[in-house]
Amino acid sequence: MLFESFPAAQSVFLWSTFALAFILGAVANKTNFCTMGAVSDWVNMGDLGRMRAWFLAISVAILGVVILESAGLVNAGASFPPYRMNQFAWFEHLFGGLMFGIGMTLASGCGNKTLIRIGGGNIKSIMVFAIIGLIAYFMVNPFPGSDKTLYTVLFYGWTNPLAVNLGKPQDLGAVIAGSENAVTARLVIGLILAAVLLFLIFKSADFRRNFDNVLGGLVIGIVVVAAWYFTSSVGIEADGQHYSLQGFVQEWDFLTDGAEGKPADSRPLAAQSFTFINPMGQTLGFAATGFQSAMLTFGVMAVVGVILGSLFWALVSRGFRFEFFASGRDFVNHFVGAILMGFGGVLSMGCTIGQGITGVSTLAMGGFLTLFAIILGAALTMKVQLYKMVYEDEATFFKALVTGLVDLKLLPSSLRKLDAV
User: Fold this and answer.
1) Contact between residue 163 and residue 349 where contact means Cβ atoms under 8 Å apart
2) 342-362 burial code (b ≥16 CB/10 A, e <16)
3) Most C-beta atoms within 10 A of its C-beta, which of 113, 180, 238, 390?
4) 171: which strand partners?
5) DSSP code of residue 77
6) Paired sense of beta strands 235-238 and 2-3, if any
7) Which residues of 267-276 are buried (b: 16+ CB within 10 A; e: fewer)?
8) Strand residue runs (E) in 211-361
9) Element (H, E) at 3
10) 419 burial type by CB count under 10 A (0-12 exposed, 13-18 middle, 19+ buried)
């Protein structure tokens, strides 16, 4: 999709994002698509229905990206954020994912669910949004009058040295077959992985009969792929050459007569799909600068679109209702959970959607590791909460943690400290 001017191309880029985010918000609300809920159903009830919906979205996203990329219609290799970068920050993915999983459990939902809840009238999710957004903003932007960010002050010095430079993109295709054969390898790996996942998902008759779970997984997977396609395809034809939006901004001074209409940063104009932690920071930054158009990004449109899509379904279904903190403890849990999600989501470069679906769709190793860490962090937190509630004073944090690890088969049963619940 080539346009003759930057404003026309940017408008399609932003409004297609909003439309897709609106659909995502409405469908996620309608189907109760919730990644934290998926882990909770599995851990507490042994119900895999919503977990299968989540993995259906992952399967569809993988399938769509590898096929479109092999056809030259998606450019996931130059994405924002850079999922496939050569630097494999394994510890940040693992540590950040664990923090995020713990945080989303305490705060009653991930980044996407926070936006869905806001659209449905949940007041406490507004606080969660504000805390996540503030942390996310200063994790990547310097403090006023300084060149330091939260990331450089708190994490860079001890987490960055642990990263491994692979010398090639970190996606499975490049790692296994080399950069030269990566496209073909990604297609083969993606097709096989998606086929296996789809078989495991749809072999459940209960899942096949659950319309909402199937609808939620399919639509959200398709929306993620569609965002990859639109952000990769929108471009500008100028002086007989084709430019991506990012490429055009990088050559702005040579292609335009002035600074009017120039975005503040070219990176958010790269190919990308949905993620919600860093975009919450972008949205606060957009508001803090007086809603300047130069600060309007894919992420801002995604955040607004999901909230309004959720609000639309809440009103149509008459499910809109105001909800506030049930107690002081509920407030503290959400407060701490928001902090952990803010730090963890930026460290791991994404959330349950941003890495768990979008990142994994690129077959980046960081996406798979973050997905594992988020599920582990959430599952362990739920186990600890359960044993602390059942055994009260008898269950110390250590006993509950060890017993939870035994339940998840990560430690031998001989180490169990509390009777199974």
Assistant:
1) no
2) bbbbbbbbbbbbbbbbbbbbb
3) 113
4) 364
5) G
6) parallel
7) ebbbbbbbbb
8) 235-238, 241-244
9) strand 2-3
10) exposed
What does the angle CA 163 – CA 250 – CA 139 come to, to the nearest 5 degrees? 40
**Position 200, amino acid:** L
Question: Would you give per-residue pLDDT tens digits along the chain (421 residues)?
Answer: 888 889 999 999 999 999 999 999 999 999 999 999 999 999 989 999 999 999 999 999 999 999 999 999 999 999 999 999 999 999 999 999 999 999 999 999 999 999 999 999 999 999 999 999 999 999 999 999 999 999 999 999 999 999 999 999 999 999 999 999 999 999 999 999 999 999 999 999 999 999 999 999 999 999 999 999 999 999 998 878 898 999 999 988 888 888 888 999 999 999 999 999 999 999 999 999 999 988 999 999 999 999 999 999 999 999 999 999 999 999 999 999 999 999 999 999 999 999 999 999 999 999 999 999 999 999 999 999 999 999 887 888 999 999 999 999 999 999 999 988 8
Q: What is the pTM of this model?
A: 0.95
Q: For residues 368 and 113, is the Cβ–Cβ distance under 8 A?
A: no
Q: How many residues does the chain have?
A: 421
Find how far residue 33's CA is from the centre of its chain. 14
Segment holding 164, helix H or strand E: strand 164-165
